[in-house]
Structure formats: structure tokens, C-alpha cells
Amino acid sequence: MTMPAHLRDSRAFITVLAGGILLQGCGEKSQPVLPETSIITVSVTPKAATINAGAQASFGVTVTGSDNRRVVWRASGGLLSSTAAAATWTAPSASGVYTITAISEADSTKRESATVTVTPVVANSLAPLQP
Question: What whole-number distance in Å separates Cα of residue 43 and Cα of residue 110?
């Protein structure tokens, strides 16, 4: 097989894509050029909340660096209802600290969590006033 003349000339400008790395240059002094990549970030708001047992908290999410801005929501307890951009979480009856996490569909290593502290509902222990 004979190499085309424009590839035999060491002064020819060569561009080759090899395994996602762009190699560009002239002749033997070609330098790798990494393709532009976007850094995906996930931001959940609010970052923290304190609510009573059985109460609800709402969370929003913003994803940047990808055309796919959808997320998967996860909760360490309680009940979670969500859309791609928001989640509503209902606290369980047990007090404690719970985590609500949004995970990027574009890159599952990109995620952010909010922390929710659930406090017990305090019953009114006062006796009715007597006349």
C-alpha cells in the first residue's frame, strides 16, 4: 500500500482523532490537543432544612455543563415525589437526619445532597384551664 503524497510530506498538517484525543500538527512535532469537555455540576437548593415529623420540604435542582439536565432523586428515608427539576419530600414519623440527593442522568458521579433534620412533633401537654 502506498501512502498518499500529502501524507508523505512531513510539512503536511495532520489531524487524527485517536481514542477521544485530537492529535494535530505538522510532521513529527505533533502535539495532542484534548477535546473541550464540560464539567457537569449539580446544585440542590436548599442545602439544609429542619422540619417536623410528617411535614413536607421542597427541593430544586440545577444541572450545568450538559444538555441533559435531568436528575434522579434519592432519599434516605421518608416519601419522595419528584420531577426532573424539583422534589417534594415527606418526613417520616421518626426524628433524625435524612439525606435527599439529586444525581445527574448525564454523569451519575455528579450529585449533590441536601440534609434534612426531622424533629419530633411535641404534643401539647398543658391541662385545660379550669374555672
Answer: 10
- Name the residue among 40, 38, 44 with its Cα closest to residue 102: 44
Q: 106: alpha, beta or left, given left = phi > 0 and alpha = psi -120 to 50?
A: alpha
CB 70 within 8 A of CB 46: no
| 107 Cα distance to chain centroid | 7
Q: Which helix (H) or strand (E) holds 5?
A: helix 5-8
Amino acid at 58: S
Picking from 23, 98, 18, the residue whose alpha carbon sits closest to that of residue 57 is: 98
What pLDDT digit, counting tens, does each position of 47-67 carry?
999 999 999 999 999 999 999
Q: Identify the burial level of 115 via C-beta atoms within 10 angstroms of its C-beta, where 0-12 means exposed, 13-18 middle and 19 or more buried.
A: middle
CA distances from 85 to 79, 88, 91, 99, 100 (A): 17, 11, 20, 17, 14
Evaluate whether 108 touches 74 at the Cβ level (below 8 Å).
Answer: no
pLDDT tens digit sequence for 79-90: 999 988 899 999
